[in-house]
Design a protein that fits this description.
By secondary structure, the protein is α/β, with parallel strands linked by helices. About 35% of the residues lie in helices and about 20% in strands.
């Protein structure tokens, strides 16, 4: 006997704190799902508040207002069921999922496992749940859970499957980092096959401060296969018919029982709620579905899409329209300009050349070629007069000393003043152009090139910068006329990187080659490897020692750096929280003065 449910996954992009706007967004997508004949539509974790709401949930008025907007959503569910994330309040606060059916709030599920690692801080705000409602809709038994609950094999999903749930609905605010989708899908597929259940997994999409959410919502069959998938990094309504009776499958009752017994320690309670199919939907013939499942993005395409979306949403959600970028003729500023152009449109990107006495004619030409190829506005502000004036002002104080970094750094600080003057006058936001390799080692000027409103490449190493430049050029190649400029000229990619703050300067004067530096940074920053482990991995001992010292001494600089899109498993910022004053040295060695 066929038991078919039409499931819709609403992969939406809410805005944190915009309770009114988010509820209207949800209502709109409920309507879209209803028009597609969906029986039930799922929305992401904390969809009403946006994710993560952080200390907003400590404001009693915010929680009350989010509950008012939940009522608006409930009223919009005539003829359909919906699962919607919100903040619940029952003496304590809960990260919650509302199960709504035909205009009535039928039950509320409270998230059981509250992540408190990496970028997550949910134990600061919420209390764990202890209640698992199970629903029967159209003859199908359904369990609901929230995000982290899916990651524990002996958790709510096992408990629900043990009590007869055949379809498990899991709503998510799962932030992106490179390669996470594959690991995540393997985990969910394992849960589906372990429990012999269908799993409908919906994820948020969009940027929020340093986080970006990749979507990639999917429905998994009881053998762990993906039977429908939404696209990466864009809003989408994935609608799929799931037949829970047409294909016989073996439910592994014994393994489910073992997992559920482990979940008993959570003191989960099950309540069963019978629902009748909403008449207004059930009386209408369902429209025929014509869906082509999306192929997930991978590699450089995935990273590039993430940083474009994160940049767009950071700028747009704060109601900025235009951005301003210092164009040096180097690879970092070229990639930043390309990303900004793709995120916001070239008409909203202003490039600024600010040559000093040390700027080469080639760098000026390259910056101009980038602006021309991307179609962005280009302004010129030579800084020689200001540079000379500062040298004159400081001449007495610096007399008798050897010229060095202090004199060099006057130039990026002048450039920062110009960029921020344009920002202040015209309402632009300044995009910095430094990459993760530079930020890790402190290779940047505080209040100079490190100053800005958003750091597009903050979590992108120099070696990945080159990879993304090649990728960006490749996606333009098909539509480019013969002889037309590449978005990022070849010379920009191949020439040795330089700050051009003194004659014949190269990055390699101050840093190890990037192909040596970046693997050490990945090990030390992202994996917490010690010097012995880094050397055992094949890195030179003297380079490891030097890099560790550079990283540890630069924390005070990083703390003053603007936010940027999280790309790697461990980004600087909320993801890695090191003390600024820190004298720890591996192996108990005496700190270097």
């Amino acid at each position: 006997m066929d038991r078919v449910l039409r499931i819709a996954l609403a992969q939406i992009n809410p805005v944190v704190g915009d309770l009114w706007g988010n509820s209207r967004l949800i209502v709109d997508w409920i309507g879209r799902a209803r028009d597609q004949g969906a029986d039930v539509v799922l929305f992401p974790e904390l969809a009403i508040t946006g994710y993560p709401p952080e200390d907003l949930v400590l404001k009693p008025a915010f929680v009350r207002d989010n509950l008012k907007q939940l009522n608006v959503v409930v009223e919009a569910t005539k003829g359909i069921s919906a699962v919607v994330g919100f903040v619940d309040e029952e003496g304590d606060l809960f990260n919650a999922a509302a199960f709504i059916h035909d205009g009535e709030l039928k039950a509320v599920y409270h998230k059981v496992f509250l992540p408190n690692y990496g970028v997550f801080d949910e134990q600061r705000y919420f209390t764990p749940g202890h209640h698992c409602p199970i629903f029967e809709l159209g003859g199908v038994r359904i369990g609901v859970s929230v995000c982290e609950d899916c990651w524990y094999p002996a958790g709510p999903m096992a408990w629900e499957a043990h009590h007869g749930a055949e379809l498990l609905l899991n709503i998510n605010g799962s932030p992106y980092h490179e390669g996470k989708r594959v690991h995540r899908e393997e985990m969910i597929a394992g849960r589906a096959s372990d429990y012999g259940c269908f799993i409908a997994w919906v994820n948020m999409v969009g940027g929020q401060d340093e986080l970006v959410f990749d979507g990639n919502s999917a429905i998994f069959g009881p053998t762990g296969d993906v039977i429908a998938r939404a696209p990466s990094f864009r809003e989408d309504l994935l609608v799929c018919d799931v037949n829970l009776g047409s294909v016989p499958f073996h439910r592994p009752h014994e393994s489910i029982r073992r997992e559920a017994e482990g979940a008993e320690r959570l003191e989960l309670l099950v309540s069963e709620i019978d629902l009748q199919a909403a008449k207004s939907a059930g009386d209408r013939p369902k429209p025929k579905l014509s869906r082509v499942d999306a192929r997930p993005l991978e590699g450089a395409a995935e990273v590039y899409a993430a940083v474009v979306l994160g940049t767009h949403d950071y700028v747009a959600k704060q109601n900025f329209q235009k951005v301003v970028i210092g164009l040096s003729g180097g690879v970092d500023s070229a990639l930043t300009a390309a990303i900004a152009s793709d995120a916001l449109g070239p008409e909203n990107v202003i490039g600024v050349r600010m040559p000093s006495r040390f700027t080469s004619p080639e760098s000026l030409e390259d910056a101009g070629l980038v602006a021309e190829a991307l179609g962005i506005q280009l302004l010129d502000f030579p800084i020689e007069s200001a540079h000379g004036a500062f040298e004159e002002i400081l001449a007495d104080a610096f007399r008798g000393t050897i010229a060095g970094v202090a004199e060099e750094n006057i130039q990026p600080r002048i450039r920062s003043t110009i960029l921020h003057a344009l920002s202040n006058k015209f309402g632009y936001i300044v995009l910095t152009t430094g990459n993760k390799s530079e930020l890790a080692t402190g290779y940047g000027t505080l209040y100079g090139d490190m100053a800005g409103g958003f750091a597009v490449l903050k979590d992108i190493t120099k070696t990945m910068v080159y990879e993304l430049c090649r990728y960006r050029n490749s996606i333009s190649a098909a539509g480019r006329a013969p002889g037309a400029l590449q978005p990022i000229p070849e010379r920009v990619i191949t020439k040795p990187p330089t700050a051009e703050l003194k004659p014949d300067q190269k990055d390699s004067d101050s840093l190890p080659p990037y192909d040596e530096l970046d693997p050490i940074l990945r090990g030390y920053v992202e994996q917490d490897l010690g010097p012995e482990e880094l050397v055992a991995a094949g890195n030179k001992p003297e380079v490891v020692a030097r890099v560790i010292q550079l990283v540890d001494r630069s924390e005070y600089k990083r703390r003053q750096y603007p936010p940027g899109v999280k790309i790697t498993p461990r980004a600087f910022g909320r993801d890695r929280r090191m003390p600024i004053v820190n004298r720890y040295v591996p192996n108990g060695a005496r700190p270097t003065p």
